[in-house]
Design goal:
alpha+beta, BirA Bifunctional Protein, domain 2, 2 domains, 9-stranded mixed beta sheet, 4-stranded mixed beta sheet, about 35% helix, about 20% strand
Length: about 375
């Protein structure tokens, strides 16, 4: 059965493909109006380049193969963000603030728990060269605007900060080999698992790590965090950043979750996620990953977000558009050719029948061109 695809891979048939492409164009145009320049990284890179600064989760998601030209190990990208960081740091090498956007397929070794695909279409935007909270706020607003434009208003924008976890883990002396395990347990709010993983830590820091799973909700979360978390400079700085951002985004549905540290491990500061009703997981994710370009020659402040365009298209309301116009086979009628050209210039889809072709095999049409009194007119197709 050579027509079967591997598990968790699927074709996009005409209706779905049209919806995905419509949203891709709209979203990239939105990014462009905000000053984000489009880049197109390759699907394959040498493995060390793809995984620079990444955590074990990204390594496990990446398909690996041997390059027949060089003999080196290559990877199929599982995330485009590191590639864009490489472009900013090594290829563009501009001074000052750089805004970049991208869209392309990525490939995962295992399917996402909710979306159930191994080939998401990742679309996103990044800002390089600005460390202030203003850049994070711009990205969060752009993330919300992207979902709203698709008809999926974000009813909750959760903020967190990886620096809080990092500071507590470091002060507690958490072994490096346990770091990723505890990080993952925090994301799932697995309290029994955390208790076991943190059993050997000093009680004050062990309790603080467990308390992170309870610190979610409205702005009151930040005050509770200040009262109950260890008095560490990095913790205070992170809470100040969250407070400053929330104060400047009062018009957005901002919430807080200090254990929702989603995203690959190159995030090292503020992280955020957008949620929409009826969808169990975050529909868009982002955060700060300062210094990701260091391995490529330039350590730069960086923040950005991305989302799976295929999943957004699946959830978004389907735009109703007229179907195509069916045109008869043209046997040298210049008038018919001119009418068809004019309709296409106006944005209409016109399907011309080929010699001997029956109308039933054409693209779905709801109108047709027919000649009346020597003129070509558009008439409705009677479905009866």
């Amino acid at each position: 059965m050579n027509w079967l695809l591997p598990e968790y891979l699927a074709d996009a048939l005409p209706a779905e493909a049209a919806n995905i492409e419509r949203l891709r164009r709209q979203t990239l145009d939105l990014f462009g109006r905000h000053g984000y320049e489009l880049v197109m990284p390759p699907l394959l890179e040498y493995l060390e380049s793809l995984l620079t600064g990444a955590g074990q989760d990204l390594r496990l998601k990446t398909f690996k193969l041997v390059d027949q030209l060089s003999g080196r190990t290559m990877g199929v990208r599982a995330d485009i963000t590191p590639q864009v960081a490489r472009i900013d740091a090594h290829l563009l090498n501009r001074d000052g603030v750089v805004r970049l956007s991208y869209c392309g397929s990525v490939l995962h070794t295992l399917p996402a728990p909710v979306a159930g695909t191994r080939q998401p279409i990742q679309i996103g935007a990044e800002i390089y060269g600005y460390a202030g909270v203003e850049a994070d706020l711009e990205i969060i607003r752009l993330m919300a605007a992207s979902l709203a434009q698709a008809g999926l208003n974000a009813t909750r924008l959760d903020l967190g900060h990886v620096g809080i976890f990092r500071a507590i883990a470091q002060a507690a002396g958490l072994p490096a080999e346990a770091d990723e395990e505890v990080f993952a347990l925090l994301q799932t709010k697995d309290v029994p698992g955390l208790q076991a993983a943190c059993a050997g830590l000093p009680e004050s820091y062990r309790s603080a790590l467990l308390r992170l799973t309870e610190l979610y909700g409205d702005a009151g979360v930040l005050e509770r965090a200040r009262r109950t978390l260890p008095d560490l400079p990095a913790v205070t700085e992170a809470l100040d950043t969250l407070s400053a951002l929330a104060a400047r985004a009062a018009d957005l549905p901002i919430g807080f979750d200090l254990s929702d540290l989603r995203g690959y491990h190159y995030h090292n500061g503020l992280v955020f996620a957008a949620y929409t009703p009826g969808y169990a997981s975050a529909l868009a994710l982002g955060g700060r990953y300062d210094g990701a370009g260091e391995a490529f020659g330039r350590a730069r402040p960086a923040t950005g977000f991305s989302m799976d365009l295929r999943e957004v298209a699946r959830l978004a309301p389907v735009a109703t558009r007229p179907l195509a116009i069916l045109a008869p086979c043209n046997n040298g009628d210049d008038g018919l050719a001119a009418v068809i050209a004019e309709l296409r210039a106006r944005g209409e889809a016109v399907v011309e029948l080929l010699p001997g072709q029956q109308a039933g095999g054409a693209m779905p049409c709801d109108r047709r061109l027919e000649q009346q009194s020597g003129k070509w007119i558009i008439a409705a197709i009677n479905k009866d």
